[in-house]
Amino acid sequence: MTTARLRTLGTTWAAVRRTAPTQPHPVIPRRPPGNAPLGVPLSVHDRLRDALGVGGVPPRGGGR
Q: Which of 21, 23, 20 shows the shortest CA–CA distance to 56?
């Protein structure tokens, strides 16, 4: 791969990581088209929960 292609790939990956939900949502489809319209609102919801420190998945190792 060229350097330009790798940079484009890295930029795309960073954008996807910023918009992806941070918690598992087992009832949401993992493939298009169902995942696209549901992923963005869930991402906002997850990031608010993460910022407030409520809900979500407990830390690994039981928080120890």
A: 23
